[in-house]
Design goal:
There is one protein chain. The chain is mainly beta and about 290 residues long. Helices cover about 0% and strands about 55% of the residues. The chain contains no helices and 25 strands. A hairpin with a 4-residue loop joins strand 3 and strand 4.
């Protein structure tokens, strides 16, 4: 039986062009999120309501905590490290490609960064998914992607879920020691329900996925059954992640880009309190 709910709160009212990439940073007790096309890195402390906004020099697809403090950034021209003081910056992997930008990224159980790219025109085959280690070593995992999006691992690390949005699929791979194999369809999103975008995996191994142009977040059980739908009043729902001190609140990012008459919450950071139980996410070892 599928449960439907419209329960949500506005955590941060904003007008992000392309809100994305919610990530809980346990070291600082902050929720990080992005406006990719606005080139802004946001942080939000739910215990105090304190917010910060940092303008980046390039479109930024993802920001993840580093094990030693600071952040790793998936930027238009490559992956860079930002020090904890917010001042020190250096490229770890610099690979500018005309017409291409960074998109979603995730940190694997072994501390490597799996970073996606896409062309601005979303041309098929124009994007990639690559694995980057702390010493800057790069392995291309997928080289024929249109819009590289949500990536996440099962609680035991043996499965990796992945989305190339135009396919309308969540795919799943077998994962072992930083390598994947056996790609297959986990879930296919039906026509008219939107496109799968960002995802997160909870402590029960259920996959939560945001639906671009679908106005919803769905949860699928490990066998691929749909068991929960959170419906939202704005269509361009981009990503979701668990946060808060106990990792039970589901944070959801949204976008305004391409909407003729955006809903008042479009571009805001939303939250569903006590939505489920997330798992601690590894920091990037670099």
């Amino acid at each position: 039986m599928t449960t439907y709910t419209t329960a949500f709160e506005v955590a941060v009212r904003a007008e992000a062009t392309l809100g994305e990439g919610p990530t809980w940073d346990p070291a600082t007790g902050r929720l990080l999120w992005l406006d990719i096309l606005g080139a802004r890195l946001h942080s939000y402390d739910p215990s105090t309501g304190h917010r910060t906004v940092r303008v980046t020099d390039q479109h930024v697809g993802a920001a993840k905590p580093r094990a030693g403090g600071g952040l790793v950034l998936n930027l238009r021209d490559g992956v860079a490290l930002l020090d904890a003081d917010g001042e020190g910056f250096r490229w770890l992997h610099h690979e500018p490609v005309p017409g291409r930008r960074a998109n979603d990224a995730a940190v694997a159980p072994d501390g490597s960064l799996w970073a996606g790219t896409m062309r601005y025109d979303e041309a098929p085959g124009g994007g990639t998914l690559f694995r980057l280690t702390g010493d800057g070593s790069v392995d291309v995992v997928l080289d024929d992607v249109a819009v590289s999006n949500g990536t996440g691992w099962s609680p035991d690390g043996r499965l990796m879920y992945y989305i190339d949005s135009p396919t309308r699929r969540i795919d799943v791979f077998d994962h072992e020691e930083g390598a994947v194999a056996g790609r297959r369809t986990f879930v296919e999103i039906e026509e008219g329900a939107g496109f799968p975008d960002g995802l997160t995996v909870d402590a029960d191994g259920c996959v939560w996925v945001a639906l671009w142009d679908g106005g919803a977040v769905r949860r699928y059980t490990p066998d691929g059954s749909l068991d929960r739908v959170i419906t939202l009043p704005t269509p361009r729902v981009t990503a979701c992640a668990f946060g808060g001190a106990d990792l039970t609140d589901l944070y959801i990012t949204t976008a305004r880009v391409g909407l003729d008459a955006p809903h008042p919450v479009a571009g805001s950071l939303l939250v569903v309190p006590a939505a489920g139980q997330g798992t601690p996410q590894p920091a990037f070892k670099g």
